[in-house]
Amino acid sequence: MKTTAAVLLLATVLLGLTHLASANSCGSSNDPSSDFLVFVQYWSPSCCSSLGSSCNASLVENDFTIHGFWPENDDGSWPQYCSPDDFSYNMIRNLTSELDYYWPDLKIGATPSNGLWEHEYERHGSCAVHQSNIMHDEFDFFNHTLTIRKSLPIKQWLAEKNIVPTNSHDYKTQDLIDVIYDHTGQNPLILCSKGNVYEVYLCYSNDLQPMKCPSGVTGCAQSQFCGEYAYFRPPQSN
Questions:
Q1: pTM for the whole structure
Q2: Active-site residue 67, yes or no?
Q3: Exposure string (b/e) for 151-177, b if CB count within 10 Å is 16 or more?
Q4: Which of 5, 90, 201, 210 could form a Cys-Cys staple with 189, CB 3.0–4.6 A?
Q5: What is residue 25's predicted lDDT score, i.e. its pLDDT?
Q6: Which of 72, 118, 122, 124 is an active site residue?
Q7: Active-site annotation holds for 124
Q8: pLDDT tens, 171-205?
Q9: Once rounded to an integer, what is the mean pLDDT over residues 65-85?
Q10: Bridge partner residues of 66 (DSSP)
Q11: Cβ neighbours for 179, distance < 8 A, ≥ 6 positions apart
Q12: Strand pairing report for 210-211 and 229-230
């Protein structure tokens, strides 16, 4: 009887562990459907620092720039490459002046045909368009992503609370979160690299309404969360 009970207990534990693993997939899925979208911005000086000598410093704005707009699922998984259609620069030609500012590809040698825009659309945007009732094609994806970015002047909001880029001291991470919450009604996820503010995540429903980020996102990104304090650094001097 004791042996049977022990076997049952072990099976229960293993089932629970399997459930926890599936609850936080943290990887790509073959299913093109998604539950929500994640809007991700770089703090561009930190992005450039991470690229090192590969960064095109002339393109770095002292501001937050778009990394991507990604469909994700509640369990932390995400669809990718949902369409056989290739990225077309001609589809977004009328948006390129704004894209150059708000969504620059900081890597030296990158062009629209082989850089960040192509990658982000083919891997993520094609799935966002597949799921959304609002975005129907490549132009819509980039246009709506720009609209969201322009509605989030995070650097300006922080400056209004005297949180400005500096090398002289760090800031309480919660103070940055509170500022963004006051303007959006949602708690952002703030990620760091080597103690420096690196990315800001905000979540949106498939009809592009702000929403609380599900636990799958927070669980998968947790290892990169900023600590209690974080530096908010200016661009490096040349």
A1: 0.86
A2: yes
A3: ebebbebbeeeebebeeeebbebeebb
A4: 201
A5: 66
A6: 124
A7: yes
A8: 999 999 999 999 999 999 999 999 999 999 999 99
A9: 92
A10: 41
A11: 157, 158, 160, 161, 163
A12: unpaired
